[in-house]
Amino acid sequence: MRGGELSTEAPAADRYREAERSLWAHYGLEPTERFVDISSPAVRLRIVELGSGPPVLFVGGTPGTGPYWGGLLRALDGYRCLLLDRPGWGMSTPMDYSSVDYGTVAAAVLRGVLDALGIDRADIVGASLGDVWALALASRHPARTGRIVLMGGGPIVAESGAPGPIKLIASPLGAILVRLPPKQGRVKAFMRHAGHRASLDAGRIPPEYLRWRVAFERETDSLRNERDMVRAVVGWRTGLRPELTFADTELAAIQQPTLMVYGTADPVGSVELWKRVADLLPRGELQLVDGAGHSPWLDDPDTVADHVARFLGREGARSSA
Q: What is 11-312's CATH number, 3.90.20.10, 3.40.50.1820, 3.30.1340.30, 3.30.930.10?
């Protein structure tokens, strides 16, 4: 990856960057990186940038960050894509979520990123937990939020529930799991549980992706930091805590055009649930990707990119999937 590398960083960061470069090269992409410091909350964040055009801020979930968007970005042209490492995730510094309102602080982080980049307003693409971040910004800072794309099921409403792996991470056993030596077999098991079995079995998930994911777990503190965050918002016995999700009235107040792209093999939520959520959003739209899992662009990047490009490039209009 070109630009922004710090010679004083530990060898682990260099090894992680090497795995990233390999995956980016598989997709034929050469992004740059930068770090920004925001003051409220105080955190240093890494942003990976690719392309030019209208700004689109990408916020990932627990499945990954940075190059895990690569299959989508390779098929999505004409945008300035800004890929955020959430606090504690990837190469951003961690923060304490235990005594804050989650939605408020998520919105503050994204607003701080836009301020640091000199961007007044951006479209937002979230995935999984990143869906919550995108809607939090729209709810609290609507003037800074353009169109919204939600990828895969996320903890948006209480009915979605906490995925099994997330509840496991939040449990006492999670303290051991996030410190186990990472292995490709465990990464594959996680992805199969997330609905990507068919793509793994057919070889559509490249080996560079699996090697990157192992390096992500081995060379960064992301999973340990993510466990601290998850424990602040998920009870391993009780599930999602109310401050993480949106009430129907809160969703109905979000006026930005919003597209949800949901794979029918995604175990988080259901087609019926996300149709209900899309109907609650005044300018909501749901598009289904047949057979795709929790990160639908991993299974069918061209179809997902077509949906996203169409949506970002025109006035939002409700349609029924």
A: 3.40.50.1820
